[in-house]
Amino acid sequence: MFSKFSSISSFVLLSIMVSGLSAQAVAQEYAQGKIFLSSGMTLEGKDLRMTMESVTLEVQGQDQVFLLTDVVQVMAKTGKAKKFGQNCAGACVGINLGAWLASGGTTTDIDGNEVDIKPLQQVMGIVLWGGISYGVGYLAGKLSDGWQVVYLSRG
Length: 155
Description:
Layout (H helix, E strand, L loop, with lengths): L1 H24 L2 E10 L4 E9 L3 E6 L2 E6 L3 E7 L2 H23 L3 E3 L5 E3 L2 H26 L3 E5 L3
Antiparallel strand pairs: 1-2, 1-5, 2-3, 3-4, 5-8, 6-7
């Protein structure tokens, strides 16, 4: 009985330690970032990652790491463009596919005659409108994703 209790408590303790270590690894991630250093230098790049002690920014393909004690301010963009584009394209594809399936693969032409929609024709239409929708969503996400302050030194 004691060994069973001991193994369970050891497992719980180990789980708490692992979750504590992983929580300190990366606190926040952003698509783009600007770092304002206390030396007066400003860096701009992509893939901003912040922990409790440091900030990492990819500049020209290389990670630059700075301690938060050397940083005055960090600004970031969350990267809404890709998410908005995917959501718009997914909605468009879903609506087109649902409408095609609901219609039984037929439509009515200008003269009022019922016409079959060929599957290849429907797929090409879905791809075209899905691509246009992705572009519109991407543009909307890009325009609405402004810089926001995510860290400001208090010292």
